[in-house]
Amino acid sequence: MYTNAAASSAKPIRCRAAVSRAAGQPLEMEEVEVAPPRAHEVRIKIICTSLCHTDITFWRMEGLHPSIFGHEAVGVVESVGEHVREVAVGDTVVPVFTAQCSECPDCLSDRSNICSKLPDVHGFMPRDGTTRFSSASTGEPIRHFLSVSSFVEYTVVDVSHVVKLDANFPPAMACLLSCGISTGVGAAWKVAAVEPGSSVAVFGLGAVGLAVAQGARMRGATRIIGVDLNPDKFDVGKRLGITDFINPNDTGGKTVSEVIKEMTGGGGADYCFECIGSASVMAEAFQSSRMGWGKTILLGVIGSMAPIGIPPQDLLPGRSVIGSLFGGIKPKNDIPMLAQKSWSWRSS
C-alpha cells in the first residue's frame, strides 16, 4: 500500500538510455540518472518498448534534443510519489501520451479525449515543467518525449498518463495498446463510428492502419480496402480483415482515388483513414471518399507544416474531414476494455 514515507524513500536511479542528441543522428547508449517521482508521478521499470513512426518524425526535427524518445511501452511500477492512489509498486502499467485527469470538462465529456487540465508540455513533466532525466556523467538535463520516454530502463510518468493492466497480459501486446493498436481501433470505433455493411479504405498498413482494419471489421464493415506500397503487408492485412488491396505503383496510371471509386461502384468509400502522415496522401484519401456522407479520418503525424490540398467546393456535397488523436479513446476507460478484446483476438 502507498505511503508518503515510501515515496520519500525513493532514490535516484542510474540506468541505461538511448539518448537522441542531434536531429536525425543515431541514438547514443548512455548512463542517465532518473530522479525519484514527485507528487502525482510514477517511476516505471520499462520491460518492453516498441518503435512508432511518430518517434522517427520527431527524431528528425530540430530543437528537441537531447531527448529520450519512445512512447509505446509497458512496465512495472517501481515507486510512486505523493497523492498517487490508483497504482502501487509492482503493478503492471502502460504509459500513454494522452492524459486523463478525470476531472476537467474534456475528460468528463464523451466528445473529447484531450485533457484540458494537463496539456502536453513538450520535453518536460506536465505539472512543473521540469525533467526527471539527466546525464550521469555531466548532470546535463535530458528532455522527456510525449510524457512517456520509454527508450530507457526506468522512466517517470505523471499518473494521469498511466493505465493499469492485468500482470498476465503479454508484454508485446500491452506495448502496442499504449499507442498503435488503441489509435487504430479507436479511430474506427469512436471517431468514425464505422457502420455495418459500409466500405472502408485504409491508407498505410503499418501497426495503426492494420488496427484500423481490425476495428472496421469489428464494426461490421463488409469491404475494407488496404493501400500500401509494400506487398508484404497484404498477407498480414487479410488476417486482420482487409478484403482488397491497392499498391499505388500498380494502378496503370490511375490515381488511387480513381481505383477506389471503381471498386466501390463509382461512389467512393464511406470511410477513409490516412495512417501515414503525408499531406498529399491525406488529400488523396479525401478524394477517395463518397459524396454525400464520406468521412475522412486523419491519424498520421506530419513533421512539416504542409497544408492539405482540398478544394472547398468538394466539402459542400456532405463530405467531411476529421482529426483523430489516439483514436479518440480515453486511456483509463478504454484501454482495459481493448485489452480484453485483444485476448479474444489472440485466441480466435
Automatic annotation (TrEMBL):
One of its GO terms (biological process) is formaldehyde catabolic process. Keywords: Metal-binding, NAD, Oxidoreductase, Zinc. Pfam families: ADH_N, ADH_zinc_N. Residues 39-166 form the Alcohol dehydrogenase-like N-terminal domain. InterPro entries: ADH-like_C (IPR013149), ADH-like_N (IPR013154), ADH_Zn_CS (IPR002328), GroES-like_sf (IPR011032), NAD(P)-bd_dom_sf (IPR036291). It is found in: Cytoplasm. Its main location: cytoplasm. One of its GO terms (cellular component) is cytosol. Gene3D superfamilies: Medium-chain alcohol dehydrogenases, catalytic domain, NAD(P)-binding Rossmann-like Domain. The keyword Acyltransferase does not apply. Residues 207-336 form the Alcohol dehydrogenase-like C-terminal domain. It catalyses: a primary alcohol + NAD(+) = an aldehyde + NADH + H(+); a secondary alcohol + NAD(+) = a ketone + NADH + H(+). The keyword Metal-binding applies. Its cofactor is Zn(2+). It comes from the Eukaryota. GO terms for molecular function: alcohol dehydrogenase (NAD+) activity; S-(hydroxymethyl)glutathione dehydrogenase [NAD(P)+] activity; zinc ion binding. Homodimer. Belongs to the zinc-containing alcohol dehydrogenase family. Class-IV subfamily. This is Cinnamyl-alcohol dehydrogenase. It comes from Oryza glumipatula.
